[in-house]
Design a protein that fits this description.
With 255 residues, the chain is mainly α. The protein has one domain. 74% of the residues lie in helices and 2% in strands. A two-stranded antiparallel ribbon has the order 1-2. α1 packs across α10.
Length: 255
């Protein structure tokens, strides 16, 4: 029996099973085939992010106004990078000026706001549940085993992954000026949360783990960290492409 979900207008919409394998393959192929166009449009944000990584090497533990400004600047450039990448994949490179030089727009601000809301929401969920578990263990007369504690923390992590996956499509929709909200993102991803989790969480974790292995093997220096960060950004294009393609698939299935 086919399953349905209500959209934002309470219309009956058939649940679409996201083709994860197809999306991941395309996310690797498309950036490679159009690497010249994509890299030329992302040159400025990539250059600035790598430069900041190089300049800030060994200073991340220093607490001062300059470091705060560098972190803020890096976040703004990352938003610029992500929005540009989403627009290239979903709209084509004709919508992005040469070398990616464009003014900061309302869409970038909205993207930043959504990113902040998402991070704070997931952090709040994890903080409340973990604090509640610590309090419960403290006042309880039972002696909980380490395995039960690990099991609970795993549950909290899985819950955070689930929420992130259900809301993740708000990012590509914002990048292409399609006015959506959390309710829309939650409804349209119904039935695809764990498929999206493979794209939104599993793929970045694999990439991050791989980079950490490389760094541990080759050592650390300002130049090595900058090079590895460049590699991370290049691979991040694949991740952003995957999320854009997932959004495109689900959006087109409901039109």
């Amino acid at each position: 029996m086919d399953k349905y979900v209500a959209d934002m207008d309470n219309n009956k919409v058939k649940i679409y099973k996201l083709p994860v394998k197809k999306i991941i393959i395309q996310a690797f192929i498309i950036p490679w085939v159009f690497k010249r166009e994509i890299l030329s449009k992302l040159f400025i944000p990539i250059f600035l992010l790598v430069l900041l990584e190089y300049v800030n090497y060994g200073k991340s533990e220093d607490i001062n106004d300059i470091n705060y400004l560098l972190v803020l600047f890096s976040i703004l450039i990352y938003v610029y990078f992500a929005v540009t990448c989403h627009r290239i994949i979903l709209l084509g490179d004709d919508f992005i000026p040469q070398y990616g030089f464009r003014m900061w727009t309302v869409r970038d601000t909205k993207f930043l706001i959504w990113m902040t809301v998402m991070i704070l929401s997931i952090w709040l969920i994890m903080f409340v549940l973990m604090r509640a578990s610590v309090l419960f263990i403290h006042i309880s007369q039972y002696n909980f085993s380490l395995y039960l504690i690990i099991l609970f923390y795993s549950f909290v992590f899985i819950l955070a992954v689930y929420v992130l996956s259900r809301l993740s499509l708000i990012f590509p929709s914002t990048a292409v000026d399609e006015m959506k909200n959390i309710k829309w993102a939650w409804n349209i991803t119904h039935g695809n949360a764990w498929r999206l989790a493979l794209i939104v969480v599993a793929l970045p974790m694999f990439i991050g783990f791989t980079v950490e292995l490389i760094e541990s093997a080759v050592g650390s220096s300002a130049m090595i960290d900058a090079i590895l960060y460049l590699v991370t950004l290049l691979v991040l294009i694949i991740e952003v492409s995957a999320l854009s393609l997932a959004y495109k698939e689900i959006r087109n299935s409901n039109t």
